[in-house]
Amino acid sequence: VQLVESGGGSVQAGGSLTLSCAASTYAFSRYCMGWFRQPPGKVREGVATIDIYGFTSYAYSVKGRFTISKDRAKNTLYLQMNNVKPEDTAMYYCAALRRTRACAATWQEYNDWGQGTQVTVSS
Asked: Would you give per-residue pLDDT tens digits along the chain (123 residues)?
């Protein structure tokens, strides 16, 4: 699966940002999709996932602030980030897991990754 992220940048705390991930044509109908992040000097962590039926799951730290969605017509995965906080600063990655459900897996289980896009939140 080919994955290409975009939309990262610098934003002030309390602001919003939308990340996009362009995926291979068949990805959304076959695979779990997820957003992960790696803060500076820390381990990679899960942010949000979505299965082929549209069922979503979120990390507790972003629940109510971030929304994962996908547009099958555009083969694009999104992460809408609202009310961002300095602790959201990280490299954000889009990833695919080659199964259709039970997507809330660890990052080590995900098979395919994009190159990442940096998000920096200033206070």
From this structure: 999 999 999 999 999 999 999 998 788 889 999 999 999 999 999 999 999 999 999 999 999 999 999 999 999 999 999 999 999 999 999 999 999 888 988 899 999 999 999 999 999
CB 96 within 8 A of CB 23: yes
What is the spatial distance between Cα 121 and Cα 89, in angstroms, rounded to a whole number?
5
The terminus-to-terminus CA distance of the chain in angstroms comes to 36
- DSSP-derived secondary structure for 19-57: EEEEE-TTHHHHSEEEEEEE-TTS--EEEEEE-TT--EE
